[in-house]
Amino acid sequence: MFREVKKLCKNKWFIFSLIGVVVLMILSFTNLISRYYQGIFTSICINIILVTSLNLLSGYLGELTLGHAGFMSIGAYVGAYITKDLFPFLAIEISFWPALIIGAIIAALIGFVVAFASLRLKGDYLAIITLAFGEIIKNILTNLELVGGAKGYMGISRFVNLPLALIIMFISVFLIYLLVNSQYGRIIKAISVDDLASNNSGIDTKAYKIKTFVIAAFFAGIAGVLYAHYMGNLAPKIFDYNMSIEILVMVVLGGMGNFKGGIISAIILTLLPELLRGFADYQMLVYALILIFMMLFKNNAKVNAFFSELKLKISKEKVHE
Amino acid sequence: MNNILHVENLGINFGGLRAVDNFYMDIYGNELVGLIGPNGAGKTTVFNMLTGIYAPSEGKIELMGESIINKKINDIAKMGIARTFQNIRLFNNLSVVDNIKVALNSSHLYSLKDSLFRTKKYYQAEEDMENEAMELLKIMHLDDLAYTLAANLPYGKQRELEIARALALKPKLLLLDEPAAGMNPKETLELINTIRYVQDYFKVSILLIEHDMNLVMELCKRITVLNYGMVLKVGSPLEIQNDEEVIKAYLGN
Ligand SMILES: Nc1ncnc2c1ncn2[C@@H]1O[C@H](COP(=O)(O)OP(=O)(O)OP(=O)(O)O)[C@@H](O)[C@H]1O
Ligand SMILES: [Mg+2]
Do B142 and B165 fall within a single domain? Predict the structure, then answer.
């Protein structure tokens, strides 16, 4: 572990983001940034977790899925239910942590079920099935009076502030980074370009697909628990397919399977609607255009090879530094 | 002699099409055997059945006495049947050395937990894989290209990387599907040497499909000729070259 941190300390991107996190923490502890901006940065943290985890599934493994908001909502509702209704007598400082873990685990379990049910599907079919899954979850939540139903789930403790969100984001991203930069990452990248050749190289490709769904759903669940305890209330309709598409757009814009790119595009696309008042009106239109443009680009073998080679060159230079 | 592969009465239907019928074959230790025949004869289909991609309609396939019928593709690969593809199928988004490391996975397993906590086992496995992959690349004269993207290799090198990746599985039987396809004469000559070297060095049995008769006659000790999904003739290169039926069905003139 220390060897890995040592290696990362030579990475300017890692140092850069570490400084960013520390500065933001100091600023919010000393109340030097307004509540409004603290809110925006908290949203950015949540979106970074969502994008990085979806990147595993849709970027590295190359499985187009539109159900990430569904996994997130499971984490959000399970986490909120635990702190609000299951252990109302416990201080939130205590009950938040089991809520965080259990919310994520339940989301991961559902991820396992979805993965198992959709193993044979690829491409558009998988996108449609995961889209349907997200809508089913939304409808179940709408009819579940236990958690407020259509009226929404109110009065959740607003325990999450910017420093907490920063820490949990940083740990989540770091864990996913460790996974991507290991044999697991190598294998899901291989599966994304050639399922059969991976299978023929002794790789149990189905197991890797299930694993990736489970991990991605786990971290979406983490993001959900954070979201619930940051907002203080939940409504099923927030977690609709528009949200899944938004996360996917961030992944695609960052360059599918590009770790830094995903994080940067999460930051930019969260800031944009906040900074440009008018942007929100055109948001979905812009997203649709981005998606179409990137998909056209992504399917061009020459463009692809050029970018991959560039990435490899850059990473090699780092090794030699 | 030790029997590596035993195939008996193998057949497969695609809808109404009888693609392979009553196919049989035996391969012994460290042998190099050829599988030839006209386009569409069913050669690649035989490979696909030997590697578990297609489930045969009937018949026996045994690797060192153990049946591989109904086994999963990845398990057959681990049991010892590795292959290359007629249309090269590399992991184009990975470097040359990472292509090998993917195939080294089953012999250097470590868990997600090891990745997350960067345990000793993680570092050990990664180091072993790097060393083993580089060693293999050196043997295949690909070591100076180790960190190039597989997609950017010249054609001939891509074919050799695919063979190297198959060898990373430490197979008992190596299946090569038209390894010389698309190669120029110089690359083909290099390939002949490589295949011979691989056979000697790795003590592996090789079954190869090829339309380049020079290569086949040069390398193979025995040849099976397939025609319309059925075995037309089995014999030495000399016997095959002079067989009336084979000349009529495939070799011509
Ligand atoms: N998945 C499939 N579904 C239907 N038909 C198939 C399938 N795979 C192969 N075939 C048919 O089986 C026959 C044998 O094909 P195969 O690819 O094995 O030929 P081959 O001997 O490898 O030819 P070539 O020298 O051109 O590679 C062909 O008629 C082909 O169309
Ligand atoms: Mg063929």
Answer: no
Same domain, B27 and B133: no
Per-residue confidence at A283, pLDDT binned at 50, 70, 90? Answer: confident
Q: Where are the domains of chain A?
A: 35-260
Atom of ligand 1 nearest to the CA of B48: 18
Burial bucket for residue B61 (CB in 10 Å: 0-12, 13-18, 19+): buried
- Cβ atoms of residues B105 and A187 within 8 Å: yes
**How many angstroms separate the CA of residue A77 from the nearest CA in chain B?**
27
Which one of A205, A305, A316 has the shortest CB-CB distance to B152? A305
Q: Same structural domain for residues B193 and B77?
A: yes
Collect all residues with Cβ–Cβ distance below 8 Å to A126 and sequence separation of at least 6: A63, A64, A65, A118
The protein residue with its alpha carbon nearest to ligand 1, atom 2, reads B14
Cβ within 8 Å, pair B118-A1: yes
**Residue B109 is part of which domain span?**
94-148
Please give the ipTM for the structure prediction.
0.94
In terms of domains, do B243 and B130 share one?
A: no
What are the percentages of helix, strand and coil residues in chain B, rounded to 5? 45, 25, 30
Contact B41 CB / ligand 1 (< 6 Å): yes
Single pTM value for the model: 0.91
Structure tokens given for A124: 């558009």
Amino acid at B170: K
Q: Which residues of A touch B103 (CB under 8 A)?
A: 201-202
